[in-house]
Amino acid sequence: MPVDSGTQPPRRDRRPYHHTSLGFCNPPGSPQREKRPSRALKFIWRQRMHVIRPELPTDHVLPLATVQAGLAAHAGVEAVTWLGHAAFLLTLAGKTVLIDPFLSEYASPIAGVGPRRFAPPGLPVEKLPKIDVLIVSHNHYDHLDARTIEALPYKRRIQVVVPLGLGRFFRTRGFRHVTELDWHQARDLGGLNVTCVPAIHRSARGLHDRNRTLWAGFILESAERRVYFGGDTGYGTIFQETGRRYGPFDLALLGIGCYAPRAAMHMNHADPEEAIQIALDLGASHVMGMHWGTIIMTEEPVFEPPERFRAAADAAGYGPDQAWLLHIGETRAVPHGAIAGQSDTVVKAA
Predict the structure, then answer these.
(1) Any residues with CB less than 8 A from the CB of 199 and at least 6 apart, and which?
(2) For residue 341, what pLDDT is reported?
(3) What is the number of other CB atoms lying within 10 angstroms of the CB of residue 199?
(4) Given this model, what pLDDT does residue 13 score?
(5) Residue 261 maps to which CATH number?
(6) Which residues are registered as beta bridge partners of 253?
(7) DSSP state, 160?
(8) Contacts of range 22-25, beta carbons closer than 8 Å, 24 or more positions apart
(9) Domain membership flag for residue 139
């Protein structure tokens, strides 16, 4: 079994530290997994088989017409649209990028079983604009959604960028241009540079493929803007290294939900306070909270993550214009603070 931290014995080969004989492992200094099988089974049954449908605030999900008007208003602008959970449309370097598109009803291999979304996506798959680039951070069902992937049109022209081991999933579904990246590898997609960076998580789609494919965050860069997408990740010192090596960033898209119970979730998902610390480590001038408000997978109250995120952001010096909580379907222009430094000061880690 691949270990969760970087405490494995010294290597005698030249493989990167996160490559093991059975797959992949997390960076050194990552939090350790607690092994409590009985609690884990109870947790899975309670949270994934008995899904609560919470009452939504009236403005949590924008109407379709409002979503489409927002996209039209930002035509020709480098912009980001939250589709819910960790799914985004990003317009950068003249390309439309679709990220972690979970747009179907269930985060499960079987429709009708498992975590069910309580909030609809900002856009259904049939209403998406023409996609130039598709990026998927890892193979969990709430990020790699086969139903959405199979429904996408123009598969032969879309450029797909994924971590190591995920290419076959897309090639067998008709995608022709598929690139697999290891951590710290990059690909230039005609003015849009995509870099794969470490995350603290795990992978599996079944009972026998644990950690056989890589998980990652991604950096997306145009000539003027740099965006960090965190995928799923816990918190560790790796983000200080990422900030030193690649920062600063104009905008960091970071998960703030799926964090309770902490003993089970701490090595998979950052809590809101840790997300703000990641933003500080990265040198992000703006940060947006994602991975909340769409599907119940863990024990925290559904609308607790944004409250804690806002409080942590205020304490760290991120004002309301720098710490974003979007409506599902909302579009905003990507800020221009980290590279040119025209209007915003990058918040520095303590």
Answers:
(1) 137, 138, 215, 216, 217, 230, 231, 232, 233
(2) 37
(3) 29
(4) 64
(5) 3.60.15.10
(6) 229, 288
(7) E
(8) 22/211, 22/212, 23/203, 23/210, 23/211, 23/212, 23/213, 24/164, 24/203, 24/211, 24/212, 24/213, 24/214, 24/215, 25/211
(9) yes
Q: Considering the domain boundaries, does residue 5 fall inside one?
A: no
Distance CA 105, CA 115 (A): 9
Which residue type does 45 have?
Answer: W
DSSP-assigned letters across all residues of 2-23: --SSS-SPPPSS-S-TTEETTE
Residue (of 340, 331, 270) closest to 298 by Cα position? 270
Does some domain include residue 52? no
Q: What are phi and psi of 296, to 5 degrees?
A: -95, 115
Q: Residue 243 domain-assigned?
A: yes
The residues near 245 (Cβ < 8 Å, ≥ 6 apart) are none
Domain count, the chain: 1
| Structural contact between residues 232 and 138, judged by C-beta atoms closer than 8 angstroms | yes
Amino acid identity of residue 173, one-letter, is R
The pTM of this model reads 0.91
Residues paired with residue 79 on neighbouring β-strands, in sequence order: 91, 333
Q: Summarize pLDDT for 66-120 with one digit per residue, the tens.
A: 999 999 999 999 999 999 999 999 999 999 999 999 999 999 998 878 899 999 9
Residue 213 domain boundaries: 57-333
Please list the rounded mean pLDDT of every run of 10 residues in the chain (350 residues). Answer: 38 81 94 63 50 85 98 98 98 98 94 89 98 98 98 97 98 98 98 98 94 98 97 98 98 97 94 98 98 95 97 97 98 79 40
